[in-house]
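Re: weekly structure request thread

Next one in the queue (235 aa):
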Amino acid sequence: MTAHLPLDASLAYSSPFASLDAQGLNLQAVFNVRDLPQDVLATLPVHDPQTDKQLLLIGHLGPLMWQQLTVRGLVGDNPVDAFACEHLAAWFERERPGLAYRFVYPSSSHIGLQRLGELAGWHHPSPFMVGINDLWGSWFAYRAVVLADTQLVLPPKLNSASPCNACASRVCVRSCPVNALSDGYDLAACLAYRKQPDSACQDRCVARNSCPIGAGHRYSEDQTSYHYGRSLKAI
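Done, posted below.
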């Protein structure tokens, strides 16, 4: 179970994912399906070991994907999902033509993205309930999971520790406008505040924005407003 390290150019590993990197789909992990833990296998749709040899986990880090997406245009019901699927389909056509693959996410399947992120070394829990990484903070997201008849060379494993464990200031907890993080996570208080007309968290999470980890990868204002605007409509 290994993950491509997009931030370390010194690695000898030659990534096949350069074209995805260029589109901002710049986090990739590759797992041999036979090696996945049973709890992960249980969340996958019925799969054929003859054709579903590997699982690819694709994410985006930082603002580049949003920049590329806005060039394409925010069209359709879910332009982010469409963008990821289009570029992955093009990658398979170009890099692994003729091989079988299918999307597990985005789809109607309930795949444990955070669990896969943990296995890849990307995801650690944070007080503000968004995954966090010691290199790029919380400024990443899961964009696709693919079962494929590939035999990709497994890239070096990404080993990372949770930055929250060493954080003494807990500035995210202190900055939450309704103290929803003071004693665990108070989901009801968080959602109620977000729906208030004068809420500071309608189009962003104040606690998340206060976290200093990975600040250089922070989303743009437009990107943040878009994602939080969609989540606000969902609640």
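DSSP finds nine helices and five strands in the chain. Residues 79-95 form the longest helix (17 residues).
Next request, please.
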